[in-house]
Amino acid sequence: MEFGYFYQNEPEQFAFYRIPRVLFTDDRFKNLTTEGKVLYGLLLDRVSLSRENGWIDEHGRIYIIFTLSSIRKSMNCAEKTAIKYLTELEIFGLIERIRQGMCKPSLIYVKNFTDQQKLQFMTCNNSSSPSVETTVHDLKKLQANYTNNNNTEFNNTNPILSADEERMGYEAYLDEQLGIEALKSDYPYDTSILEGIKDLILDVVCSKRKTILIAGDEKPVDVVKSRFMKLDMEHIRYVMNCMQGSTAKIRNIKQYLLAALYNAPATIDSYYRAEVSHDMATGKI
To answer: What are the backbone angles phi and psi of residue 214, rounded to the nearest 5°?
Structure first.
């Protein structure tokens, strides 16, 4: 495949999507995938169109409608991959979805992170978000905006993510974030335990309960979710090592893992410092 060169003003012939530079330069977004940043740019492009069309809720906030099938088409990716990227943006707090119910597509609010005080890294729990009504726009007006420039597929009556799809998105994210395949190579005889740990984390981050029991205490679900979304491969390795090194009989494996995972971010440093001190005292290092 061979292409020509640019001459004079020819570069101006293209239309461009805007992807904020800060997504590539700010350390807060260093773990956000490039595909996630591209999807944010696509969603941000829709914000301008929504503003022009008057898609503004009763609180003055601009919303967009961008169905899962539209994301797949725009990103040229499979359904599971599209769910992963969308979920990733929600995890980083860059978007918020409001389900309308009644088989209507979800509304998506693209977050403006230029206000440093309002930038938050959120989980999928939007139960506290205010309900949103499409105020002066009826279905006919929405369909009138179905153009080549704003192909939002309003004839698709499914919400952008079902509960199963939401879980699939988090599962894909956690597979990568926790390095599950690498851990399975390190613990070839404990793959079922690793899958159980991942499923337990999924149950927590997708839970609709108000509290979760951790070590005998009822913890607010948002607090537990926040802790669990900070977990990475080393935290899981730490939990596995603690289990292997424990001589006590574990009577309730679920509660043991919940407590271990919840405390891992706070205790992992102390654990490894103690290990190093022990090795130094015994002459291993």
So the answer is: -125, 115
Contacts of 2 (CB under 8 A, 6+ apart): none
Helices marked H in 95-232? 139-144, 163-177, 180-186, 191-205, 221-228
pLDDT in tens, 126-164: 444 444 443 333 333 333 333 344 443 333 334 455 567
Q: Is the pTM of this model over 0.70?
A: no
Angle at 232 (CA atoms; ends 230, 235), nearest 5 degrees: 100
Question: What is the secondary structure of 53-87 as a DSSP string?
Answer: HT-B-TTS-B-B---HHHHHHHHT--HHHHHHHHH
The tally of CA atoms less than 13 A away on the side-chain side of residue 7 is: 2
Give bridge partners of residue 95 from the DSSP assignment: 110
Tokens of 77: 């990716």
Q: What is the rounded distance in angstroms from the CA atom of residue 156 to the CA atom of residue 176?
A: 30
Q: What is the DSSP letter of 45?
A: H
What is the three-class DSSP state of 220?
strand
Q: 56-95: per-residue pLDDT in tens?
A: 888 899 988 888 788 888 888 887 888 888 888 888 889 9
> Do 171 and 119 contact (CB within 8 A), yes or no?
no
